[in-house]
Amino acid sequence: MKAEIIIRPIDQVWQDPQSFCMTEFIRDELFYYFKCWDYQSMLDGKVQDAGFLGCFTIENMLAIRHTRFTKQTTYPVETEHDCKCYYYEITHSPWLRDTLANRTQHDPDWADANQQHSYRHFVLENAKYWVEVIGSNLVFEKRKKDRQRMQLWKHF
Q1: Residues 82-106, buried b or exposed e (16+ Cβ, 10 A)?
Q2: Are 54 and 88 in contact (CB under 8 A)?
Q3: Digit-coded pLDDT (tens) for 82-125
Q4: Which domain of life is it from (predicted)?
């Protein structure tokens, strides 16, 4: 089967498309933070900070890869949609299939121990790169801005 790209929008959230994201890993969880603009202000034509950070949390992370945008289109940058905050989900993903097969081949007990997880291939996009993650679930949350993260963003 051919891989299919599904756009998963986050309603009423406007991700700052020019800001780089901040990624953290804790055990098998990935936290992907990004700046947001105020949704209503943007509809009114004014750029105004939203007062919170967006955060995609990917649970039971199995694999990750990071790719800068290149002239070779990895995913459809030109896909027409009106989503202001979104992620992609890749169905029938060759990378997911190969990762699971490789893991099972080299660790036969792993498949039995991880049957409860249904792994999926997610793609997060921002500024000039893709972050692809294989995990069992993706959750979006609005997070309080904290001084430490905001300080790191000042340098970029």
Answers
A1: eebbbbbebeebeebeebbeebeee
A2: no
A3: 889 999 999 999 999 999 999 888 888 887 777 667 999 999 98
A4: Bacteria
The model's pTM is 0.89
Q: How many domains does the chain fold into?
A: 1
Q: Which segments of the chain does DSSP mark as H helices, in order?
A: 39-43, 94-106, 108-113, 147-154
Nearest to 16, CA basis, from 54, 58, 67, 66: 54
CB atoms within 10 A of CB 3: 14
The rounded distance, in Å, linking the Cα atoms of 133 and 8 is 15
CA 9 to chain centre: 12
Domain of 23 in residue numbering reads as 4-154
The alpha carbons of the chain give a radius of gyration, in whole angstroms, of 17
